[in-house]
Amino acid sequence: MKVAILGAGAVGCYYGFLLARAGHAVTLIGRPALVEAVRRGGLVLESVAGRETVPVEATASGAGVAGADLVLVCVKSGDTEAAGATIAPHLSPAATILSLQNGVDNAERLGAVLGRPVVPVAVYVATEMVGPACVRHNGRGDLVLGASEASETIAVAFGAAGIPTTVSERALDALWGKLILNCAYNALSALTQLPYGRLVQGEGVIAAMTDVVQECVAVANASGVSVPDDIRDTVLALSTSMADQRSSTAQDLARGRPSEIDHLNGYVVHRGAALGIPTPANRMLHTLVKLAERQNES
């Protein structure tokens, strides 16, 4: 396949690397520093297996999606509409667009801009950029892909590239499950700059995370979303399976960049208010991260 990755950060670069290594023609669309580094030395992956490099195309222009069979949208949630407008004139009518983004409503928002369906994808991977064109893999890497005409074919191709992929009619439920994980960890990891394994050892942290999870579940259920009964256990287990991972929100704050907190805890607060469900734990985390962002700006 010809694959374009829009928003080539840690998630986009990781999956772009695996697809390129498997022989697909990959074009990364990202910041100028990434483009320059990729053109100079390729895309680099660091993992427990060592350090590998693959050649890929790279551009800072939305026109990089032209001719692509598959477009992976990995931009921050707040950039969804702007990103869609950037690529809309260049998309092939036959292209399949996947939203590999945090939050639960990005595929819908992106589809509204593009005027065509976008497949939602729940992403379970721990990655971070450790150089302009170097991504480090810290754990997992599996996807839950929403159902579409092309989904089964894409899942097979992804599996062959080393990306475990499940197709589900209930991808929205999976996205809510991922949202709950993010609401429990992202803000706390960001405010403390601690990885998950050390984070949960803090006094009162597990109790606080439990409050966050319970609020999220209440909002999800009221929204008609099915959340597993053992979601709290799943959340806490992440501190072991991704013990060394700092959240994407922590990475954003450390780099002085805006985070996606409005689309994580902030989304739960907004949705809860609309449904008449109190969300004080999520509100507090959202407020504290917004204050930290403002401090970065000053």
Q: Detail the poorly predicted runs.
A: none
Using the CA coordinates, give the radius of gyration: 18 Å
Q: How many strands?
A: 10
**Strand residues, percent:** 15-25%
**Chain-averaged pLDDT:** 96
Query: What's the N-to-C terminus distance?
Result: 45 Å
Salient structural properties:
alpha/beta, single chain, ten-stranded mixed β-sheet, 20% strand, 298 residues, 12 helices, globular, 47% helix
Write the layout of secondary structure elements.
Layout: E1 2-6, H1 10-21, E2 25-29, H2 32-41, E3 43-47, E4 50-54, E5 57-59, E6 70-73, H3 80-87, E7 96-99, H4 106-114, E8 119-131, E9 134-146, H5 151-160, E10 165-168, H6 171-192, H7 196-199, H8 205-222, H9 231-241, H10 248-254, H11 265-275, H12 280-297
Parallel strand pairs: 1-2, 1-6, 2-5, 3-9, 6-7, 7-8, 9-10
Antiparallel strand pairs: 3-4, 8-9
Helix pairs in contact: 3-4, 6-8, 6-9, 6-10, 6-12, 8-9, 8-11, 11-12
Please tell me about this protein's structure:
It is a single chain. By secondary structure, this protein is an alpha/beta fold. It is built from twelve helices and ten strands. Strand 3 and strand 4 (50-54) form a beta hairpin. The longest helix is centred in the middle third of the chain and has 22 residues, at 171-192. The chain is globular, with a radius of gyration of 18 Å.
